[in-house]
Amino acid sequence: MLAFSAVCRLIAQHVRPCAAETLALGEAAGLVLAAPVIAKADMPAYAMALRDGYAVMSERLIGVSPLSPLPLDAAAPFVTAGQRVPDGFDAILPREEVTESGDALSEATSGGHILHRGAQIRQGEVLVDAGTRLTGATMAALRLGDTRSVMVRRPRLAILALGEVNGLLAEACRDVLGGLSPDIRCTTTSGALPALQSTLQVVNPDAVITIGGLGAGSDDVARAALASAGIVLAAEMAVTPGRRAALAMCGQVPVLALPGAPEAVMALTMTLGRLMIACLSGERRGSAPSPRRLKRKIAGPAGLTRMVFVRAEANGIMPLGSERVSLKGLAEASGIVHVSPQSEGFAEGSEVAILDLDHWPDCE
Questions:
Q1: Cα(359)–Cα(271) distance, rounded to whole angstroms?
Q2: CATH: 3.30.390, 2.40.340, 3.30.70, 2.40.440. Which one for 292-352?
Q3: Which H/E stretch holds residue 184?
Q4: Which of 179-193, 196-210, 237-251, 306-320 has the lowest mean pLDDT?
């Protein structure tokens, strides 16, 4: 059996980024940029008011106070937050610092309450770098920067359920990876090798995940199909749940074969499947997740990499089981704690990191 860390390294070594394509920004949510987005103009494009108030020249209000008010120039325009500050003015005097009769009650600082042209980004600068996944605030920043289209990678993933019993697991696998690889095709089939060969030829996927068919003897149809269709990189993995999982390369297409146990499918999809999609997408690795305090110990024998589902709570994380997790536990899971084969676990109160869909296992 191949060590889990070695499997991660094999994926990182063999799985190359898929082809890039240009999409409208609204169609690219959740995908990874294949090229940096360059600012087409200064942002903001003009000096912008940050507060409602009067545009003034700060030097004319030196020494002004409630005890020594000064009538504002009749030409001082009132602007609202977000509006352009007219030329010739260098500060905004908030409305509450001006009396109803138009007297200024305080000084103004040059540049006060103004966002100057190009303060956020200059034309020609990188707004968002390649390898960034387009979610949340990143999409908003691009939209505010008037980005209309982006070059991204959209991995095509095929999931083969070997046998009717594994059909729901294939759908569950798609649920886990759907936000990372929107183009996913699920197929239920009985013949492993013909189905794999047909998928590679007809669907032309960037990666394949098979579920089931990893039993003993004649039931080991998935591993036999991998050996016939490609090069098996890992015949079994020293990991629980999922020790019978396998990894192969069929030409340039990685194939991850998962056993039919729900815990194994979910644990390895969230880790090895996530890593595979990250490599296909050319995604940059983000900062490591912050450690969280363990509310109950994780114990077990050393020798295998263990994947323990956990639930995030207000004051720490709670393990949801070891190799067997209930459906209710899966529904409550926030992520996985990765226990190395050299460790027998973690004591209650230990600080441990959670792997979720924003992270993937180390390949070092």
A1: 8
A2: 2.40.340
A3: strand 183-189
A4: 179-193
